[in-house]
Input
Amino acid sequence: MAVTERPTTQQNVVVKEMSWDPITRIVGSLGIHAEIDFTNKEVLKCYSSSMIFRGFDIHEGHRPS
Amino acid sequence: MATVEFVPGQRATEQVVAHALWMTTGLSCDGDSVGMTSATNPSLEDIVRGIIPGMPKLIIHHPVIAYENGDDFMQAWFDADEGKLAPFVLLVEGSIPNENLSGEGHFAALGQDPVTGQPITTNEWIDRLSPKAAAVVAVGTCATYGGIPAMKNNPTGAMGLPDYLGWNWKSAAGIPIVCIPGCPAQPDNITETILYLALMLAGLAPLIELDDCLRPKWLFNRSVHESCNRAAFYEHGDFATEYGSDHRCLVKLGCKGPVVKCNVPIRGWVNGIGGCPNVGGICMACTMPGFPDKYMPFMDEAANAKLSSNTAKYTYGPVLRFFRKQSIDLVYDKEPEWRKPGNVNLSGYTQRW
Output
């Protein structure tokens, strides 16, 4: 888990960027990246990322049969 | 630790710590990882706990079974890149995309670059780690030959690991890429090959024998048909006409077994139970380099198979079936005539004293 501390100028509000990438013990490649305001107990931003693209659904004109 | 040595030099080789880095971030479904957790001979637990005499201690770094998350998990990859984890074996699951086609994005990646925060692509990890690995293993049909992500009209330009690194590629220890195909690869085939490589790197086994397609020879030297327990019905020209009908040969339903190299009919799946054609499923040829394009449509009988199965069905098959049934009914299903109660022994025995 990567934690980047970035205190902002407003009244000692602590905002941390945290990322879990890859998330293990699941099948599939998932990463979660979040920006959390620990002072106000609020999640400011949260992204998920899928690390692989297989392109199964766009095998145009040649579907497995 | 063993007090008795079962193999010469066992104590020395058991002191060696080897690492296995398993990448699931090729284009795949992680089916091989899930399959491997059900291996029984040897099981994953046997390998991790080192119950096999002489086997080096093997530490497995695997996204599906690791307790570590995120950067803690990725540390092993960065350590391997810096040469801190020697010796290690790199196992790749999933086909390798052609990142030249991905433009500004990426098709497959694992972890982030600590400096730039950008994802590190699977291809970059393979480029970085394969020269340092003691052995490189491709697990599953996607990683070995391309499989479904690499079929016709695919958008990613996917290919197998030997296509990417080169079919004549050899590791620093002089070992070619080891391919364990299957969709998923048979669990015991995976763990057995890992075990073999571990013993080989410890100097307890000879160099692994591979065929032209880089498969372990002792696992993939026979076709599905040669090891199928329905194969004799083909010889008799006696074919199943629908799924679940009976125990006859499945070729007319589209089974590709006669032209597929795979040991699943002998080995079964979990703990020896099952095996696709043994339990009534057609062989779809999932272990083969030509899979899936050259075997489609899966549910139809191939033209070659039609010719040979009809030859069996309309010429010699019924003749064999008739005479074999006659022999069984008239001769072999009957006991020899001397087995009866009474005061006389009719077996032909004569007393010699």
Q: What stands out?
A: The radius of gyration of chain A is 18 Å. The interface with chain B takes residues 1-2, 19-29, 31, 49, 51-56, 58-62, 64-65 of chain A (CB under 8 Å).
